[in-house]
Automatic annotation (TrEMBL):
The keyword Glycoprotein does not apply. SbcCD cleaves DNA hairpin structures. These structures can inhibit DNA replication and are intermediates in certain DNA recombination reactions. The complex acts as a 3'->5' double strand exonuclease that can open hairpins. It also has a 5' single-strand endonuclease activity. Residues 267-355 form the Nuclease SbcCD subunit D C-terminal domain. Signal peptide: none annotated. This is Nuclease SbcCD subunit D. Heterodimer of SbcC and SbcD. InterPro entries: Calcineurin-like_PHP, DNA_Repair-Maintenance_Comp, Metallo-depent_PP-like, Mre11_N, SbcD, SbcD_C. Residues 1-218 form the Calcineurin-like phosphoesterase domain. It comes from the Bacteria. The keyword Nuclease applies. Belongs to the SbcD family. It comes from Streptomyces cyanogenus.
């Protein structure tokens, strides 16, 4: 069976205030063409179909168009909700839409109930695990502590239990939206650390033939059977080095996996430039970036006059301007933001405690801080779901 694995469409998202709807529509067209030309048997979409819980009307219309075009091809599609989606909204009409071959899996309780498709070699069971917010689903899965590994592990127990009841030789595919250990993150994924450590080990998914992951925006291979497709478009300058693609997966009769990357259309390349303003304006080696979306980091010791206006004369698609004067590490003028760069909320809070009283928090105090941050994030997640 040939699968096309994609995820993280983020329909409705802009790139530094640039409307990407046209580029997203171009990707949908490319997806449909790939399904037709490469004789794909099933499409899997591993969450974050939309960029936010209440997407703009134009994004909903594009999604509707995508569903109709996929249904017209007669190729089954399995989709799950991600942490950016409203599971309830995305799942509206799932029963009716399923009759057209578009299978929306947004209910955690249905984790062990697969969509079963057939090919010449027998059944393939597709299990959709929507994004599982630990604080909201721990009771459903009967886990004592709200953690990502615990709830995903419990969901996978249901998958394996169902798979054990099926005919010998039944192959299996799991769709999941999660941060799996070994994956490389970018700046454009929303934090999912509610309930403790966000990353889960790949071993959670043992026992199935292929795991189609969503959430991280870079295409990557965790193991031969566990892969991220990544987002089809770049949504932050941290993705400047990404090659945007989908996975074309051939699932053999014995469950063997053969994978091929299928490139996605690039609306405009990204470039991250760094140097003094005069150097950026004069360097002939930067000519190749003149048509790119540009993030410019200026290292001038004193902020130059009209930097954006001057930059856009050479780089008309400059979208982001950052000032990072080059100074010695012990220079007191180093910004507070630079001192905090790369540190988690928990680390910042613990550093503050150490600054105030001269010693950092003990194990119990660190746990209290962690629980406080988890409670705030969980409250935010509940509010997002309620929207």
């Amino acid at each position: 069976m040939r699968l096309l694995h994609t995820s993280d469409w983020h329909l409705g998202r802009a790139f530094h205030r640039v409307n990407l709807l046209g580029a997203q529509a171009e990707f949908i067209g490319h997806l449909v063409s790939t399904v037709r030309e490469r004789e794909v048997d099933a499409v899997v979409v591993s969450g974050d179909v939309y960029d936010r819980a209440v997407p703009p009307l134009a994004a909903v219309e594009l999604f509707d168009d995508a569903l109709h075009r996929l249904a017209d091809l007669g190729v089954p599609t399995v989709m799950i909700s991600g942490n950016h989606d409203s599971a309830r909204r995305l799942g509206v009409g799932a029963g009716l839409i399923g009759r057209a071959g578009i299978h929306l899996r947004t209910e955690p309780a249905a984790a062990g109930t697969p969509v079963v498709l057939r090919d010449a070699h027998g059944d393939v069971a597709f299990y959709g695990l929507p994004y599982l917010e630990p604080a909201l689903v721990k009771d459903e899965f009967g886990v004592d502590r709200a953690g990502h590994e615990a709830v995903l592990g419990a969901a996978m127990d249901r998958v394996r239990a169902d798979l054990a009841t099926r005919a010998r030789g039944t192959r299996s595919v799991v769709l999941a939206h999660a941060f799996v250990t070994g994956g490389q993150a970018s700046d454009s994924e929303r934090d999912i650390t509610v309930g403790g450590v966000a990353a889960v080990p790949a071993g959670v998914f043992d026992g199935v033939d292929y795991v189609a992951l969503g959430h991280l925006h870079g295409c990557q291979t965790i193991t031969e059977r566990v892969r991220y497709s990544g987002s089809p478009l770049a949504y932050s300058f941290s993705e400047a080095g990404h090659r945007k693609s989908m996975w074309l997966i051939d699932l053999g009769a014995d469950g063997t996996v053969t994978a091929e990357r299928v490139d996605c259309p690039v609306p405009r390349p990204l470039a991250r430039l760094r140097g003094t303003l005069d150097d950026l304006l004069a360097d002939p080696a930067l000519t190749r970036h003149e048509d790119a979306w540009v993030e410019a980091t200026l290292t001038d010791p004193v902020r130059p006059a009209d930097p954006m206006a001057r930059l856009t004369e050479r780089f008309p698609h400059t979208l982001s301007l950052v000032f990072a004067p080059e100074r010695a590490e012990d220079d007191p003028r180093l910004s507070y933001a630079r001192r905090l760069a790369g540190r988690s909320d928990q680390q910042i809070a613990q550093d503050f405690v150490a600054h105030v009283r001269g010693t950092g928090p003990d194990e119990h105090e660190a746990a209290v801080l962690r629980e406080a941050f988890d409670a705030v994030r969980a409250d935010h997640a509940v509010r997002e779901v309620a929207r």
